């Protein structure tokens, strides 16, 4: 792939789009000078493939129109000043030579610092450029649409441009995936990859090790609708997400040991399949044979692996899962292997485009949701209610998207039923609750595959 600056868009100064013009005016008012460039990174919706990227399996997201947009002015002082158009997010400033990321309080500026630090460390920048930055975001926060990862990606690209460096999109995605872990989230790389690799008009099959993206043409005759449950879910602020990552890692260890593999070197469920050289269906059979549905205590895990509790905590568990006493391994592994198979089947149907493609894809989405709810336990009552409403009013398939425990659903709706669907879901879910009604405007919308991250420079 070419260096990222192939994605620079030149804009006529006298004809800046309204949002950029407004951001520029606010920047001048805030900092007393004009921005030199702008960077945009989109949010995303994952159509299918939940909680499997960090297990090494392919996922199928698309970028959405909602995004993070940052106006930037490099400065000679080695200070980064961050401001936000939303007054709920307080100003922040720090020395570029002393980046401190607070994992205990995942405030908005810490995600910017993740991207900043990732680029600095990749290039070993000893004298990094200071910056004035003003951020404007249209992705609903903690909604499962990747607002935090979009901010990390945007910050990484801002830092790259301000310091006169270049990288490919793939390199940027990989660096931003690693750098988001500074805030304590053990993510797998889907969000960052689609943010950089997305192209307008197509979803992407994102594969890992090595990272690559393949176009997936979605069927005509159906729209994808995002509906926000209005329950916020912040991956870095809760332990749910990282516990699931550890459960998958522990399942990997036990499955590997049962098959005589070098379990100490095995980290992801995909690694087990690769080493055994079998298909996903056979992996599901192995899960049934090796793992039991009852939760595993740390003592039982230690006994299975022949290690002490101290070794388990020091060598396998992450810092924020040290005190967890039981883990569900059978359910998590079963979800991952079945979900990985659904992703490949989804892509196959899109490629072959049979007459009943929409029906088949909808069934896969519904199966994915049931597995997320029952085997991965990452839903919540509001998401369950919203999925039921969407299916009731004409969605062929509906599922939670993103980490879960709140956030959004994505539904596939025949285009001829779209207007009635939106009207009925609005009435049944949002207009029955005062709090949801206040958030309704940005909570329910049809979306198409959007563009990846961009740099804007005034011509």
TrEMBL record:
It comes from the Eukaryota. Keywords: ATP-binding, Kinase, Nucleotide-binding, Transferase. It catalyses: N-acetyl-alpha-D-galactosamine + ATP = N-acetyl-alpha-D-galactosamine 1-phosphate + ADP + H(+). Residues 110-197 form the GHMP kinase N-terminal domain. Its EC number is 2.7.1.157. Gene3D superfamilies: 1.20.1440.340, 3.30.230.10, 3.30.70.3170. The keyword Mitochondrion does not apply. Residues 26-74 form the Galactokinase N-terminal domain. Residues 356-430 form the GHMP kinase C-terminal domain. GO terms for molecular function: ATP binding; galactokinase activity; N-acetylgalactosamine kinase activity. One of its GO terms (biological process) is galactose metabolic process. GO terms for cellular component: cytosol. Belongs to the GHMP kinase family. GalK subfamily. Monomer. NCBIfam families: gal_kin. This is N-acetylgalactosamine kinase. It comes from Spheniscus mendiculus (Galapagos penguin). The gene is GALK2.
């Amino acid at each position: 792939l070419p260096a990222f600056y192939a994605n620079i868009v030149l804009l006529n100064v006298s004809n800046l789009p309204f949002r950029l013009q407004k951001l520029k005016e606010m920047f001048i008012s805030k900092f007393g000078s004009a921005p030199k460039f702008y960077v945009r990174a989109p949010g995303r919706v994952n159509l299918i493939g939940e909680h499997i990227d960090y297990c090494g399996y392919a996922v199928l997201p698309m970028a959405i129109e909602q995004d993070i947009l940052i106006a930037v002015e490099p400065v000679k002082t080695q200070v980064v000043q961050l401001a936000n158009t939303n007054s709920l997010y307080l100003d922040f400033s720090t020395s570029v030579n002393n980046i401190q990321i607070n994992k205990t309080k995942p405030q908005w500026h810490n995600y910017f610092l993740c991207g900043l630090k990732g680029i600095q460390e990749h290039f070993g920048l000893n004298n990094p450029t200071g910056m004035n930055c003003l951020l404007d975001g249209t992705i609903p926060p903690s909604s499962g649409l990747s607002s935090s990862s979009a901010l990390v990606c945007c910050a990484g690209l801002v830092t790259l441009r301000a310091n006169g460096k270049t990288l490919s999109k793939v390199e940027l995605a990989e660096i931003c995936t690693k750098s988001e872990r500074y805030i304590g989230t053990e993510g797998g790389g889907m969000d960052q990859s689609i943010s950089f690799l997305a192209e307008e008009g197509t979803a992407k099959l994102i594969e890992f090790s090595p990272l690559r993206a393949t176009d997936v043409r979605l069927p005509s005759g159906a729209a994808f609708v995002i509906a926000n449950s209005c329950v916020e879910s912040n991956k870095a602020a809760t332990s749910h997400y990282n516990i699931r990552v550890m459960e998958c890692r522990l399942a990997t260890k036990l499955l590997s040991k049962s098959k005589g593999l070098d379990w100490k070197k095995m980290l992801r469920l995909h690694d087990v399949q690769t080493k055994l050289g079998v298909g996903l269906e056979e992996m599901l059979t192995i899960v049934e044979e090796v793992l039991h549905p009852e939760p595993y205590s740390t003592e039982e895990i230690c006994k299975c692996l022949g290690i002490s509790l101290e070794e388990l905590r020091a060598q396998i568990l992450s810092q924020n899962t040290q005190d967890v006493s039981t883990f569900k391994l059978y359910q998590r592994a079963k979800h991952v292997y079945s979900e990985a198979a659904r992703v490949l089947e989804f892509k196959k149907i899109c490629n072959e485009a049979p007459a009943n493609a929409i029906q088949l894809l909808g069934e896969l989405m519904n199966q994915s949701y049931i597995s997320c709810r029952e085997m991965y336990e990452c839903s919540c009552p509001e998401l369950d209610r919203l999925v039921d409403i969407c299916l009731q009013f004409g969605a062929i398939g509906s599922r939670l998207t993103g980490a879960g425990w709140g956030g959004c659903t994505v539904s596939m709706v025949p285009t001829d039923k779209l207007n009635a669907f939106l009207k009925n879901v609005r009435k049944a879910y949002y207009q029955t609750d005062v709090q949801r009604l206040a958030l309704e405007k940005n909570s329910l919308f049809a979306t198409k595959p959007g563009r990846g991250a961009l740099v804007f420079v005034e011509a």
